[in-house]
Specification:
transferase, Acyl_CoA_acyltransferase, 4 helices, 167 residues, GNAT family N-acetyltransferase, GNAT_dom
Length: 167
């Protein structure tokens, strides 16, 4: 199982995963991702900007996410307070394939991101999610992310979390 940069040739597999995640959010009663976002243009832009990453196992993509080393403008105006003011990585659009069921893939992804951050000398991970994304909220709690307040994306409040990694 490897974490690697996504390629444009991965878009079809990634889009299937995103569509599955959109359906899962809806089935869970969540309003997240029910408004046409993310879409294929979002994914293509992620890949073109070097943000798109996948976890691949034996040729199959099990998870897609955007990993952004840099500033997230929406995070500049938090209603609350971040744990740190240091450089950080942002995680967006985390979506797992149905092939990943039972593999704790999201947990493994977050652990792989921690390793990637340490390699790059970045010791803070920031992430946000919808108030009703119970699966992601459970993962963040399990992995010791700290709730820091609310940020706003496209006019909606989102729960914001940070984890500061040991140096």
């Amino acid at each position: 199982m490897i974490l690697r940069a996504a390629k444009l040739t991965d878009i079809d597999q990634i889009w299937e995963i995103i569509q599955y995640a959109i359906a899962q959010r809806k089935a869970d009663g969540s309003t997240q991702w029910q408004d046409g976002y993310p879409n294929e243009n979002t994914i293509q832009a992620d890949i073109n900007q070097g943000y798109g990453y996948v976890i691949e196992e034996e040729g199959s993509i099990l998870l897609y996410a955007a990993i952004i080393f840099g500033v997230e403008p929406a995070y500049e105006n938090i209603e609350g307070q971040w744990l740190s003011n240091q450089d950080y990585v942002v995680l967006h659009r985390v979506a797992a394939s149905p092939l990943a069921k039972g593999k704790s893939i999201a947990t493994k992804f977050f652990q792989m991101v921690e390793d990637l951050c340490i390699e790059k000398g970045v010791y803070s991970i920031k992430v946000d999610t919808n108030f009703d994304n119970m699966a992601m909220l459970r993962i963040l709690e399990k992995l010791d992310y700290t709730y820091c307040g609310e940020v706003y994306f496209r006019g909606a409040a989102r729960k914001a979390f940070e984890k500061v990694l040991p140096k």
